Amino acid sequence: MFDIIIIGAGPAGLTAAIYARRAEKTVLVLEAKSYGGQIINTPDIENYPVCPHISGFDFATGLYEQTKALGAEFVFEKAVDIINGEKIKEVVTEKGKYQGKTIIIATGSENRKLGVDGEDRLIGRGISYCATCDGAFYRKKTVAVVGGGNTALEDALYLSDIAEKVYLIHRRDTFRGEEATIKRLKEKTNVEFVLNSTVTSLNAEKRLTSIEVKDKDGKVTQLFVNGLFVAVGRIPETQNFGKTVNLDESGYVVAGENCITNADGIFVAGDNRVKSVRQLVTATADGAIAATEAVKYINQF
Amino acid sequence: MAVIKVGKENFESEVLNSEKPVLVDFNANWCGPCKMLKPILDEVAEERSDVKIVSINIDDEDELAEDYSVYSIPCLVLFKNGAEAKRSVGLIPKAEVENFINE
């Protein structure tokens, strides 16, 4: 049995592992994919204290090495359930079961999909969820970005310097993102706003060739695009834990800054917690807090 | 067997004319998930002799990327008898790489 089982090896989970190991607790980290979480997609992190520039890959790898050197164990299996016993808790994965005194859920979030037919099939064939990752493939091409938040606005701005033309499609006529970014976008001659509109269909042969958008009056327009960048938000990866801990209506685990959930001995850290700022620095902060709370809990065990 | 770096000049001989199935990894130096995938592919390449694994840097080999409609990386394409059999886009864990080759 482990003192602490951490589900998720992103910045929150790995930081929790560092704090837990330094408190001399035994730690198992379970991860469905590979260490690092979504930060590995970021080419250059510029807002983490003391690191004016570091790639997401270097950040994640450094954090992983640090955690391993401190003696955390890693198992790469997807957690599918928690059995919340009073003294012994179990995390069920696709392959096995692991027992712990406490659990920290640090599973992060994933890209929300558009939900239009053919979307999955066209990932990598014109559909992308990461402009900074895939933008370079669309040099001098026509692309569309769909979404109304900061990510969509920043993606459109980023792509406007690469692509010939960028459509920015949003279902409302006002954006949730920063005013400064909107202003810069409006100054771009190759960005066209397609407002009060939703993407209703994806047309493709071998790859995406055009999309159809429908405006609020029901008028359908066909846009010829080589790429569609989907930036309609993220969804917390908490589907498997809803019966163990309280989730809010969007699926985020309900807990305050102390990372303590409603379930005794189960903590939450990172982007999957209810919070207003989801940044690298808030994820690592959560990791430190959740681990410290877990250690406190164990010491009263 | 180690992962072989492939470009336009040896794509035909190493991939299209290969007797064994070939797993082609389209990647770039600036791509984080590609760097995460690399050690996984190195391991699989060392462990298996029934498949050849090759790496193509899309910045050096933009024509190959274009020819095979690669628009997101990392992108794994499995070639059998000189033709694309299937592809997978994005970082996947080792077990899924193995399933991708096996199925």
Whole-angstrom Rg of chain A:
21 Å
Query: In percent terms, what proportion of residues of chain B is strand?
Result: 25-35%
Using the alpha-carbon principal axes, give the shape of chain B: globular
CATH architecture descriptor name of chain B: 3-Layer(aba) Sandwich
CATH topology term of chain B: Glutaredoxin
What multimeric state do the chains show? heterodimer
Major sheet size, sense and barrel closure of chain B: 5 strands, mixed
What is the CATH superfamily label of chain B? Glutaredoxin
CA gyration radius of chain B, whole angstroms: 12 Å
Can you describe what's shown?
The complex is a heterodimer of chains A (301) and B (103). Chain A has 301 residues and is an alpha/beta fold. Chain A has 2 domains: 2-110 and 234-299, FAD/NAD(P)-binding domain (3-Layer(bba) Sandwich); 127-230, FAD/NAD(P)-binding domain, CATH 3.50.50.60. Chain A is 23% helix and 28% strand. Chain A has helices at residues 11-22, 56-69, 131-134, 150-160, 179-187, 280-299; strands spanning 2-7, 27-30, 73-75, 79-84, 89-93, 97-105, 109-111, 127-128, 142-146, 165-169, 191-194, 197-204, 208-215, 220-224, 227-230, 234-236, 266-268. In chain A, strands 1, 2, 3, 4, 5, 6 and 17 form a 7-stranded mixed sheet that branches. A 5-stranded parallel sheet of chain A has the order 8-15-9-10-11. Chain A starts with a strand and ends with a helix. In chain A, 45% of the residues are buried. Chain B is an alpha/beta fold and 103 residues long. Chain B contains 4 helices and 5 strands; from the N terminus they run βαβαβαββα. Chain B is globular, with a radius of gyration of 12 Å. The model of chain B has no long low-confidence stretch (mean pLDDT 94).
